[in-house]
Amino acid sequence: MPEIPDGASGGAFMQQRIGQELASLREISQFRTLDIPAGIDLSSNDYLGLASDPRLKAAIAESVVRSERVGGTGSRLLSGNAREWQELEAEFAAFAGTETALYFGSGYSANIGLLSSLLRPGDVVFSDALNHASLIDGMRLSGATKVIFPHRGTAFLEKALREHATGVGARLIVTESVFSMEGDVAPLAEMLRLGKKYGAALMVDEAHATGVRGPQGRGLATELGIEREALAIVHTCGKALGSAGAFVCGSRALKDFLINCARTFIFSTATPPYFAGQIHAAMALARAADSERAHLRELADELRASLAAAEIDCGASSTHIVPVILGSNEAALHAASELQHAGFAVRAIRPPTVPPGTARIRISLTSHITKDEARRLADVLRAASESLGKSRSASVAHG
C-alpha cells in the first residue's frame, strides 16, 4: 500500500493507488476490458435465444403501448407498485410451484436482499465453495457465521451440520442448482435430506436452470419435486428468459417478510410496469421451448464427448455450460485468442472469478448454435490445445 507523499492530496493518493492496482492486474493477466461480442457468441446466458426473438420484441412493444407509464416512479412501497407486478408474481409462483413470489430488479439484489435480511449474527449459513458472488455478499452482510463446504461436498456438509446442530440460531444451506462456471448440478435432494435431519433450511439459486431444466423449464427443484420443501428458491429472468430481474419464490410469510425487511427491495425504485409484460411473454415462450431444451442437451453432450476424445478437461459438466479448464491464465488467453480468430466470441475466465490454477474458457451454449458450429468449435479448441502443448515442449527443450 503506497504512503501519501508529503503535500499530496487524498485525491492524488487515490489515483496513484488505482494506477498501481491496474498495473498489477495487467502483470498477472487479469486486466479486463468491456468489449462488444463479435462472432458466434459463446459467453451469452440467453440459453433459449429469447433475447432476440421477434415474438418477445412484439410483446414488449404491445406492453409499452398498453401501460399507463414507462417509469417506476418510486419504490413499490411508495408509488411504484402496479397491478401488472402483482399479477405476474402470482403467475410466476404457479410456474415455480411455490405459494408466492416477489420480484427484484436483478438476481444480485434478490440474493443480497434475501440473505442479508433472513440471516443475522448467531445464525449459521452453510455455503457451497463455488457459490456466486451475490450469495457470498448477502451472507457477509448478514453477519451470520459462515461454513464453506467443498463444492457438492455432502459428506463435509453433514459433518458441519452435525457440529452446529445444537446452536440457538437458525441454520441455512445455500447453493446454486446449476453452477455457472462448472456446468454441474448440486445434489439438492441430498442437501434437503441433510437439512431435515439436522434442522437446517435450504435456499436454492436456480439462475442457470430457469427455463432450461425441469418440466417446461421450471427449474431443477421442480424437476426433483422439492420446490415446496425449500425455504426459498430464486429464479432469474436475465438468462434463459431473455429479460431482467429475479423472483424470490417461497411461502406467503417469506414474501411479507422480504417486503418489510429486504433493503434491496425497500429502497429500490420499482421496475416500470410495462416490463412485467416482457417477462409474462418470455415465460410463455419458455414453457413451450421443449425442442430448444432438447437441442441444448444434444449439443452439450456431443461437445463434451468430442473434447473428452481430445483429452480436454471439461470438469464435471452435465449441462448446457461446458467449461474448458486450461489451468494457467496464459493458456486460457491463448485458447480464447484462437477461438476469436476463428469467429467465436469468447472470453478467458481467470481468477478471482475461478480458483487459481483453473483458468478456462466457459462455453455457454444456446439454442441458436448449430451442431456444425459446435463441431468447428471443438476442432479449434483441439488445435489450440495441441499448439499450446508444442509451445510448452519447445520452451522446456530450450531450457
Please explain how this structure is put together.
- The chain has 399 residues and is α/β, with parallel strands linked by helices.
- It has two domains: 234 residues, 3-Layer(aba) Sandwich (Aspartate Aminotransferase, domain 2); 103 residues, Aspartate Aminotransferase, domain 1 (Alpha-Beta Complex).
- Helix content is 45%, strand content 14%.
- The protein contains 14 helices and twelve strands.
- The protein has a seven-stranded mixed sheet with strand order 2-8-7-6-5-3-4, with helices on both faces.
- α7 links the parallel β5 and β6.
- α2 runs antiparallel to α11, α3 packs parallel to α11 and α13 packs across α14.
- The longest helix is centred in the last third of the chain and has 27 residues.
- The protein is globular.
- The two termini are 36 Å apart.
Question: Helices and strands in order, then pairings?
Answer:
Elements: H1 10-27, E1 40-41, H2 54-66, H3 83-96, E2 100-104, H4 107-118, E3 124-128, H5 133-142, E4 145-149, H6 154-163, E5 171-176, H7 188-198, E6 201-205, H8 220-224, E7 232-236, E8 246-250, H9 252-261, H10 263-266, H11 274-287, H12 290-309, E9 321-327, H13 329-341, E10 344-345, E11 348-349, E12 359-364, H14 371-397
Helix pairs in contact: 2-11, 3-11, 4-5, 6-7, 12-14, 13-14
